[in-house]
Each structure stands twice: as C-alpha cells, then as structure tokens.
Design brief:
The protein is mainly α and 511 residues long. 76% of the residues lie in helices and 2% in strands. α6 packs across α7.
Length: 511
C-alpha cells in the first residue's frame, strides 16, 4: 500500500511526530521539580489553557467516535451527546475553573487527589490513596483507547500490522511526555487543537463536494428513516427508525456531568497563569467545542453521502469510526498538494489521540508518584529521584494501556464512554461539594467516591444489559448515587473543623 501518495502522507505525519518530540526535548530542561513536571509551574496562558484543556478532552473521539456514530445511526445520539458535552464544558469553566485554581493555590496542591486530601485534612491519606487508585483504574483504559485509535489509523492507511502501529504510536507519545512533562503536553495540545480544527473543516468541505453538494447530502439523509430526527435513531440493519425517548435523551445529556470529574481538565484550571484569565479561556473553549462537535457530526452525515455516491465503501460496525480517514484518503488522490493536506488531516487524528493520551499519562503518573508513593507511603526522595520515578510511572501506565488496546476490534467510543463515566461519577460530586458546600467532610467524600465507582461497574455490567429503562448511560445513576451518599454521610458524621470552614469561606469570598 506504499504508493507515492501514501509516502507523501507518511512523510507529513512523521514530520508532525518529529515536531512534538522536539517540543518535548525543548521543555525537558524547564522541568526542575515535580511541580513543573506535573503542573507546569502554573504558567499556562489563556489560549494554551483553553485549547489544551479542550484538545485533551476531545481526544480521538471527536474525529473518530462522534462522526462514526452520526454516520451509522444518524443525528440523535451524536447530537444529544454533543449538546450535553457543550453544556458541561461551559458550566465547568464557569463555576469550577476559578475556584479550584484559587483553592488549590491556597492548599499548595498539584494533583486532584492531593487537593481532596488537603481540602478535608486527610491526615491518614486514605482519601488521597482511593482517588489515586481510581485515576489509575480509569485512565489505563482511557489511554488504551488513544493507542487503539493510533493503531487503527496506521493500519487502515498503510496496511501496517495493527499491533506494530499501535506500539510505535505509544512509544512516540511516551517519549515527548516523559521528556517535557505538563508544559510539553499542554503546548503540543494547543498545536494539536489547531490541526484538529483544520482537519474537520477540510474534510467536511471536501466530503460535501464529493457527495454532490450539500443538497445531495441532505436528500440522502432525509431518505433514511429517523436519520435526521432528534427523537428517533436510524437502524442500518433494519433500515428503520427506533424511538429516542426522553429517558434516553436525559441519559445522553448526562455526558456533560463527566466534566466536573475529569482530572486532566481540572489540572488545566489549576495550572492557569492568572485566575482572571480563565474568563477569556472559557469563551475560547466554549466556542471551539460547539463548532468542532457540530462539524464532526456533519462529517458523519457527509460521509454517508460520500458512501452513497460510491466514492468510499459503505462502513459497518466499528469501521464507521474511520469515516474521516477514508475521506482524507480520497482527498489524497487528487495530487501532491492534496496528499500533503491529507497528511495534515490525518496528523489531526493523531493530534486528537495524542493530546488526550499525554494528559492522561501525566495525571496517572502524578497520582502514583505524589499521591501513593510520596504522600501515602511516605517514601523520601529528592526532586531528581521523584522526577525519575514520575517518568518511570508514565512508562508503566503506557505499557498497561498498550495491553488494554491489544484487541484491534475494540471500539474507541465504548472505551471512552466507560472511562468518562468512571471519572464523572467518582470525582465530579466530590469536586462540586468540596468547592461549594462547607458542610461536606472527608467521610462523605470517601463514601461518595467509592459508591460512584461501584455503581458505574454494577450498572454497566449487571443492570444495563437488562435493557428498557435500565439501559441508560451508567454515568447518570452513578453520579446521582454518589452525590446523595456524599451529602447523607457528611450530615451523619462530625462537621468539619472551624479551621476548614474558615478556609472555605476565605476561598469563597476572595475576589
């Protein structure tokens, strides 16, 4: 499959990979401590804060998962998910960003578990350990989904063995993350968000023209039962529409709740250079998220039109997640310049994947190093030794992610969905109550965190298969259970100390 066009695409993508590794090397000398390595010394400007947060959030799901769902099932599932995420993004920036930065600064916390521990005076480090374990449990499959996306990309493009392609991609991500740490990850995420934007706009425009214009695309979509409906979902197997009811809509909108508990996004808030700059960051992030997800959904619709026009094959099952890749490949056949553009687009898929994987690796490694080894087990290390251990932790998490991603038939959308629910239910309620309810305490936080995680697993694997009303997204019931348990246990156990209440009020009333 290595013809002239593919060689041009490959060279373009290799150039991009070389760039991100160069950035990692450039920032390696700036990491003087684990505070620099894990949080960038709180030096992120407003543009980098906004775009690195959203690039690390959207991942390959934006360019693979979301268009794939729209291609296969129509508007409803993809659109309600996007609406939930857009609302969640805005409110996370609006109510959480400034306060968690201010609170974490006051407590001198550089990881989310460390923030929980300091907020609730967790002297035995139990809460910190539980939070760190949860981060590792859910970030390993999340990271694995990114590696899987890279493997699928190179395998479908160049006919490379999936496992070889996936491992090579993991090594590149591991290289620049271990070298440059948080600053390198955030800077590359900013660049990657720009490439992702170029990718989705170009594919949308080219795909629509190949399909015969926007009118032809819409005519094709209208011909499929329920395809463009917000209250019905198209089934390719039966060529019919199935109801998309209110309960399902609420379940899908619940994706937005996940934002309050995403460690790699919350860390961007904590790392912002100035609290007042977060308002500008919020506006940038919110606009970008709405535009990018809308275009990604339209790519799925356009992709189906391209298939109907016979320009690309009809995609079924998890192959629908490669619709953007297929359109980019088609673009590459129109000359050298188009091949280079296609290479940039496909680098955008890599960018989306890498921007999330690097952030997840850092968050998981910081939990292992700071929250487990140093804080819980009180292992004494110099800053240099902690840096070595942190980088080794990144490598270990990467290896576990590769193992999770070993199955080439795994769905990026399904893996991300489960991990998103895990973080949203375990950390989201704790973050909100820690920031906005002074009566919350450590007992409620631990109980809520554990109950949220348990419900995610129980609902996903035992209750959800029952179908019907139980077939809702596991994040919704788990989030509700976690926040209710947190409140009840907090009220039934001793109130926080006067010192904690005073500290809470100082942070709340600060201007």
């Amino acid at each position: 499959m290595f013809n002239a066009t593919n060689i041009i695409i490959l060279i373009t993508m290799i150039a991009y990979l070389a760039l991100v590794v160069f950035i990692g090397v450039s920032f390696s000398k700036k990491n003087k401590s684990t505070d620099d390595f894990f949080l960038g010394g709180r030096k992120l400007g407003p543009f980098v804060t906004a775009m690195s947060a959203e690039a690390s959030d959207m991942s390959s799901w934006l360019l693979l998962g979301l268009p794939g769902v729209a291609y296969l099932c129509g508007v409803a599932d993809a659109a309600w998910t996007a609406i939930g995420l857009a609302v969640g993004t805005y409110f996370n920036w609006l109510i959480v960003a400034k306060k968690i930065r201010r609170y974490s600064m006051k407590l001198d916390a550089i990881t989310i578990p460390e923030f929980f521990s300091a907020r609730y005076r967790d002297s035995k480090k139990i809460l910190q350990l539980v939070a760190a374990v949860i981060i590792v449990i859910f970030f390993v499959p999340y990271t694995g989904s990114g590696f899987a996306a890279c493997g699928k990309l190179f395998s479908s493009l160049f006919g490379l063995d999936y496992h070889v392609a996936m491992v090579i991609s993991a090594i590149v991500i591991l290289a620049y993350t271990t070298l440059g740490g948080f600053l390198a990850a955030s800077t590359t995420d900013f660049i990657q968000s720009i490439i992702m934007t170029i990718a989705i706009i170009t594919v949308f425009g080219f795909g629509a023209s190949v399909a015969g214009g926007w009118g032809a695309v819409m005519d094709n979509a209208k011909a499929l039962p329920g395809y463009l409906s917000f209250t019905a979902m198209y089934s390719v197997d039966t060529n019919s529409a199935s109801p998309y009811g209110l309960l399902t809509i609420c379940s899908t909108l619940a994706w937005g709740l996940g934002y309050f508990g995403m460690p790699h996004i919350l860390l961007r808030f904590m790392a912002a250079r100035k609290e007042e700059e977060l308002t500008f960051s919020r506006r940038i992030a919110s606009v970008w998220v709405v535009i990018s997800m809308t275009v990604a959904i339209f790519i799925g619709i356009v992709g189906l039109g391209v298939s109907k026009a016979g320009a690309i094959e009809t995609l079924v099952g998890s192959d629908s997640e490669t619709v953007l890749v297929k359109i980019a490949q088609l673009l590459s056949t129109h000359g050298v310049l188009c091949a280079i553009i296609a290479g940039v687009i496909l680098a955008g898929v890599l960018a989306a994947t890498m921007s999330t994987a690097d952030s997840q690796l850092l968050a998981a490694a910081s939990s292992v190093t700071e929250d487990v080894v140093v804080s819980k087990f009180n292992v004494k290390m110099t800053e240099k030794q902690k840096m070595i251990f942190a980088r080794a932790s990144v490598a270990v998490v990467s290896i576990l992610g590769v193992i999770i991603a070993w199955n080439p038939d795994s769905s990026v959308f399904k893996i991300v969905s489960f991990a998103w629910a895990g973080f949203g239910a375990t950390f989201g309620p704790v973050v909100l109550l820690a920031l906005f309810w002074k009566r919350s305490n450590i007992y409620g936080a631990i109980s809520g965190m554990i109950s949220g995680g348990v419900v995610v697993f129980v609902w996903k694997f035992l209750i959800k298969p029952l179908g019907g009303a139980f077939g809702i997204y596991e994040l919704l019931p788990a989030f509700i259970v976690a926040i209710v348990i947190n409140i009840i246990v907090s009220l039934l156990t001793p109130a926080p100390s006067d010192e904690m209440v005073k500290e809470f009020e100082e942070v709340t009333n600060a201007k």
